[in-house]
Structures are given as C-alpha cells and as structure tokens.
Amino acid sequence: MGNSVKHFSIKICNRAWQQAIIATSQTLRKALHVQCGIGAMSNQPLSYLGSPALGNDVAIQKYLQLMARYERLMEISRQLNSTLDLGTLLNRIIQAATELTDTETASIMLVDPKTGELRFEASSQANMTAGAMEAIVVPIDGSLAGWVVRHGEPSLVEDVRNDPRFFRGVDETIDFETHNLLGVPMIAHNRVIGVVQAVNKRPGSQWTEDDINTLTTLAAQAAVAIENARLFGQSDLIKEMVHELRAPLLGLRASAKLLMRPDLPEHRRHEIIQTIESEAERLTRMTTEFLDLARLESGRERLEISRFEYEPLIRETVEVVRQQAAERHISIHIQTEPITLQADRGKVKRVILNLLTNAIKYNRDHGDIFIRAAAVPSAQAPYMARLEVQDTGRGMSEEIQQHMFEKFYRADDVARGTQGTGLGLAIAKRIVEAHGGTIGFQSALGVGTTFHFTLPMVPPAASNTSE
C-alpha cells in the first residue's frame, strides 16, 4: 500500500477527528495517482478523476470502499460522542469493531489501575458473560494484549497457534477457539488505558493494512470517549455526594453551637450529644458507601469469585439482623433449595443484608419476612439462582417505586424517623449487575414489597460432581 494511505492513518490518529476526515478526499486522490496513474491532484470530485475504461476499475473500487469505510467511521464517531454512559459506549465500540474489520467477535480490555492487569469490560462473544469477564485476568506479561499495552502499537497475528505471546486462558474459560486476531492500543493523554481486539476474520475475508488503520482510528476515538465518560460519572457522583453531606454537616454545626450555651439544661445537652453521635455515624456510613459505589461504577472494584453454598450464607446474614427483627416482633422465614453459587460471597452477603434491613425497617410490628431461594432458567446460563425477600409492610406508592434504585433516594425516612444513606439499593444493583444478574421488585400498598435478584450458580450436575 502506498505511503500516502499510511500517512492518512497517522493524521487520523494524531489530529482532531473532524480535521482528519477533511483530508480524506485529498489522500484518496494521491492514492489513486500512485496506484492508477490518474491525475489525483485535480480539484475535481473523485468521480471525475478516472473511469473503469482506463482499466483501473479494481483500484478505483478499492479506494472508493476505503472512502466508505472512513465515512462509516465518521458516523460511528458521532454515535460515540452522543453518550456518556460507559456501558452503552463500550457496547457501541465493540459493535463498530466487528463491523469495520469484518470479524466474528471483538472485545475491550482496560488496564486495572491498581494491579496493572488487563480486565475484560465488553465483548460481543456470546459465551463471554459478565461473570466470565469478571473472572478472567489477562496478564501483561505473557499475552498479546499485554504486548500491545507495553509497546503502544498494534499487533496482527494471522495464526495464534504459532505465536508464543498468545494467552490461551480466555479460550479455555469460555470454550472458544481463536484463530487470528488484531489488537490495537487505546491511548489517552499519552497513556495506554486498554486494548481493542478484533478476533477471527469471517470466511472469505483477509486482514489488510486498512483493517489496522481503521481499528487504530476507532481505538483512538474510543479512548477519548471512555475517559470523558469516566470523568463525567465521577463528577456527577461527587456533586450528588456534596449535596447530601451538606444537610447533616449543618445539623452537626447547629448542635455544636447549642452545646456551647451555658443555660442549656443537662437533659437537653445529653440529647444533643446523642444526636451528634448518630449523625457522625451516619456520615461515616455515607462516606464509606459513597466510596464503595464510586469503585463499583468506575470498574475499580473487582469481584472475588468462588463457589459456596447459598443457604449457609442466607442463614448467616439473617443472624446479623435477628435482634433488630425481634425488637419489633418480626418473624423471618427461610425456604431454599440446595444451591451452589459462583459469585463474590462478601458482596452477595451485602446485598442480602441490605434487603433484609429494608424489609425490617419498612415492615409493620408483628410482621413477617419470607426469604426464598430457587434455581430458575435463564437466557444467560442454564440456570440462575433467584432470591426473594418479601415483607408484610405497607408497600410503596407508584411515585416511590419510580425512584427506588436512584442514588441518595430515601423513600419516606423522615416520616418514619429512619436514618438511611440512600445508597444501599444503588450499591446492591451494581453488585448484582456486575455478576451478570438482575434485580427488581414488586410492591402493593397495604400488602407489602418483594425484592428479588438473580446470581450465577453452578449447574446441579456440576455441583454434585464437585462434591
């Protein structure tokens, strides 16, 4: 391929996106001049530069296809710039990668800032579930993707069997067979933040330098978009946190001023001290949960996946809230099938604990809580474990239900005198979704509320074999 086309790819990567696209027609003219002997430096439209009658129809068609590809890149650029939601952004990138390179699948791996390892963040491969992406760690040393990160340049391997850098752990985990792949670095602020990989050319298609240029261009645009989405998410969360901290801090300040009054009765002084202790404890919980949520939303919080029995964890969590329930004469009933989960035990316990705490908080005195766990069919896997936590409280209005998973939303804590942080359900949702599960609820006024969520489980046959 002529040097002019290579020069074009450099422009695309190192200049502003729109400025690079402007140079497309001039570059194509130069390429046609080199390849076909056509007067490429003319200012006329490309359609006037030559004709199939000159015998150059194959070369002309090739470069018209190149023009169409970069026009598609321009369209994809607009799509990437139209969202700041990281999940949506990642999915658009891998869809574009498979389309532009005509490959079977594509994936995005980002560098973990804490460990320096590569983690899957998105993949178009059907077997690459959210749980699988969490479980797979791609080493920097001993992988093609790691080589791309270290060298900051693309790597095209047409037969991975002959390349010692190929990391086979991914194929073994998801039962997939990689034949060939192209990996390119995602660079933001002169730092490699990850790798975009296109895997397995479709039958009848071959890798070309155009593929390398195109995927490199996409990765450059994607890196900027991902960094923008991360910054937007962090700033949005910080603004919410500052707003939520303002009220309790003002309350603490007012209480401290009251304590300084010499005429304050002793019993009132004692009440104010208790209020200060309560608010300080709430602020501690809020800041801790805020940091947890920030890590979950940024992808820095990793799951520690293991196999464990569900029922012992459920009963262990119930014991944590047993006294709290007994104080209001609330009975807790457990009904569960034998289930082996494949999940992060500590984080699953946190989800159950949050739902149980809410079920007690918003229940009636002498009420009941029913916990049910069972295996259910799923589109993501043969079976998922579904857990329900049902209370017999007064239920939620339609208005409350619309905001249930919003950060810092507290249903009607003021009326009930409770002191939640408003982050518990948002964190629970993030944890469940990080496992590839779903969480939801049903509620009816005067009847109560049932929360339910699903998690990946070990198929019954595999569980029995492991025992």
Automatic annotation (TrEMBL):
Keywords: Kinase, Phosphoprotein, Transferase, Two-component regulatory system. The keyword Kinase applies. It catalyses: ATP + protein L-histidine = ADP + protein N-phospho-L-histidine. One of its GO terms (molecular function) is phosphorelay sensor kinase activity. SUPFAM superfamilies: ATPase domain of HSP90 chaperone/DNA topoisomerase II/histidine kinase (SSF55874), GAF domain-like (SSF55781), Homodimeric domain of signal transducing histidine kinase (SSF47384). PROSITE patterns: HIS_KIN. CDD domains: HATPase_EvgS-ArcB-TorS-like (cd16922), HisKA (cd00082). Pfam families: GAF, HATPase_c, HisKA. Its EC number is 2.7.13.3. It is an enzyme of class 2 (transferase). This is histidine kinase. The lineage of its organism: Bacteria, Bacillati, Chloroflexota, Candidatus Thermofontia, Candidatus Thermofonsia Clade 1.
